Automatic annotation (TrEMBL):
It comes from Laetiporus sulphureus 93-53. Transmembrane segments: none annotated. Residues 5-387 form the Hcy-binding domain. Keywords: Metal-binding, Methyltransferase, Transferase, Zinc. Zn(2+) binds at C289, C372, C373. PROSITE patterns: HCY. This is Homocysteine S-methyltransferase. One of its GO terms (biological process) is methylation. Its cofactor is Zn(2+). SUPFAM superfamilies: Homocysteine S-methyltransferase (SSF82282). GO terms for molecular function: S-adenosylmethionine-homocysteine S-methyltransferase activity; zinc ion binding.
Length: 397
């Protein structure tokens, strides 16, 4: 398996990596943990670190090449709500990386002792960073109702919610202020990990996940650009932006009371260079925590837009890890199945069948496929088998 530094350099070989599944929901469903706190999957980092390691190991044994750290909801504000100071927050966030590295070490030793084929796999650690909305109560990664200065208005039970600024001079000014505020939020978290070089060296990828707003996509790009320019920061890790489409629709409205933005708008925000500040492109772009039944059309629209924007000059990675098909209600913090979701082999086969025609268009360099909420080791084991069948059925050049 190639290292994160070498991934993406050979433009003639399609590469496939398997990501793990829903870490937090696996803690709940498989290990029967109550993690209903502002820290969510980060809660056991301090309370039960052995459980974090075992959860990572469950996905590694299922066949994952990439494991996401239990830091999705980590931010200084969420730690403060749970009674932790800033120094403890930094320590716990860095500890999450070390626990993932310990799981990787144990798994590699297991495979070496058994002589299994998996010793040839390189195990990658991806730093999981949720959107600003994941720090709010109720969580807003599926709606994007952010309070000022991050958005026009926070979530309100009266139903008078909006996530878009007015299309006026004042609205555009406020949107720029929101991008600046979101940039500061993401940069502050990134600095936690770059300040500890030993921890930074353990990280292979950075995953910005479940992003519901194009202004946050732009803010993430700015934060990465600022991080790269800061003294003492080594070469940036490969990083991706995962966006979310609950019910098959991007959460952000074009203007207040207007139509929703689309996957092509997301691709433009992630890869275009409009605006006053030139910012780096993400290494990968994709979709996470979205119901599988909507992926086919969304991936095709995103692929067409990426091909048009980059015109073959670059080939980013596609990163796609849907949920199991359940719907999440942020107000009650519960999942409902609606129609019975596909599980195990059925879920994995469906995902791979949707990825095959997308990858044949040669817009993407490779693909990271995995699962998000409510997908567990059984789904990832099935996905690993399907994805490694002749590299998703795509012939290598």
């Amino acid at each position: 398996m190639e290292t994160s530094e070498s991934i993406g350099k050979d433009a003639h070989v399609l590469q496939v990596l398997v990501l793990d599944g829903g870490f937090g929901t696996t803690l709940e469903d498989m290990f029967h943990q109550n993690i209903s706190t502002p820290l969510w999957s980060a809660k056991p980092i301090e309370d039960n670190p052995a459980l974090i390691i075992e959860t990572h190991l469950a996905f590694l044994r299922a066949g994952a090449d990439v494991i996401l750290t239990s830091t999705y909801q980590c931010a200084f504000s969420t730690f403060e709500r749970c009674g932790y100071g800033k120094d403890d927050a930094k320590r716990i966030m860095c500890k999450a990386i070390k626990l993932a590295a310990e799981a990787r070490r144990r798994f590699v030793n297991e495979q070496a002792d058994s002589g299994a084929w998996a010793t040839a796999r390189r195990i990658n650690i991806a730093l999981s960073l949720g959107p600003f909305g994941a720090t709010l109560s109720p969580a807003q990664e599926f709606d994007g109702f952010y309070p000022p200065p991050y958005g026009p208005r926070g979530y309100s039970e009266d139903g008078k919610n909006c996530n878009a600024f007015q299309d006026t001079q004042e609205g555009r000014r406020l949107e720029e202020e929101a991008i600046d505020a979101l940039t500061a939020f993401h940069l502050e978290r990134l600095r936690v990990f770059t300040e500890d070089r030993d921890v930074w060296d353990l990280i292979d990828f950075i995953a910005f996940e479940t992003v519901p707003l194009t202004r946050e996509v732009k803010a993430i790009r700015r934060a990465v650009g600022m991080l790269q320019n800061e003294t003492g920061v080594a070469e940036m890790k490969p990083w991706w932006i995962g966006t979310v489409y609950p019910g098959g629709r991007f959460p952000e409205e074009r203007t207040q009371g207007g139509e929703r933005l689309r996957a092509c708008d997301v691709a433009e925000a992630a890869l275009g260079q409009k605006g006053r500040i030139q910012t780096p492109h993400p290494w990968g772009l994709g979709i996470n925590c979205t119901e599988p039944k909507y992926l086919g059309g969304l991936l095709q629209e995103m692929t067409s837009a990426v091909g048009h924007i980059l015109n073959g000059k670059q080939k980013p990675w596609l990163v796609v890890y849907p949920n199991r098909g359940d719907a999440y209600d942020p107000a009650t913090q519960t999942w409902s199945t609606g129609e019975p979701p596909a599980v195990g082999e059925g879920w994995a086969r469906r995902l791979c069948e949707m990825a095959q025609p997308i990858l044949k268009q040669e817009v993407w360099h490779g693909v990271i496929v995995g699962g998000c909420c409510k997908t567990g080791p059984a789904e990832i084991a099935a996905l690993a088998r399907e994805a490694r069948k002749e590299h998703l059925g795509i012939d290598e050049a």
